[in-house]
Amino acid sequence: MIFCFFRINKIMDMNKKTLVIGASTKPERYSNMAIRKLTNYNHETVAFGMREGDEAGITIDTELKQYKNIDTVTLYLNPERQEQYYDYIIALNPKRVIFNPGTENPEFYGLLTENNIDFEVACTLVLLSTNQY
Fold it and tell me: How far apart are CA 46 and CA 61, in angstroms?
């Protein structure tokens, strides 16, 4: 019985509520693969994209919502498109922001640092696959 309790707590500790920004319903897109992999790894996932849709049971929102308790924001937007979301992401106060390949943005790194939000230049899919997420 104690083992079961420990195991449940261990699984719950692993859950990192993640917001995918730049989400797509197209299966060949990395944001779509990330949504599927996040849900497969039992991370609570919310998503924002330009087009409504559903992927792996996750609704892709087209309006910015004030999500609560976001641990990680993972970006799939090029740096030019990120600027309009700076204030929104900072207001969510995530623990970290992941800049996936092609989203690197030194200007945003500085703003995150000023607001005590960690960031990583990494690939969400690789982090999940190698248990480094």
Answer: 8
Does a structural domain hold residue 92?
yes
pLDDT digits (tens, 9 = 90+) for 86-105: 999 999 999 999 999 999 99
CA-nearest of 58, 62, 32 to 44 is 58
Residue 6 lies in a domain: no
Alpha carbon distance 27, 25 (integer Å): 6
pTM of the model: 0.88
User: For residue 3, is it within any domain?
Assistant: no
Q: What's the rounded Cα separation, in Å, for the pair 8 and 18? A: 20
Rounded to an integer, what distance in angstroms lies between the CA atom of residue 112 and that of residue 93? 9
Report the DSSP pairing between strands 53-55 and 45-48: unpaired
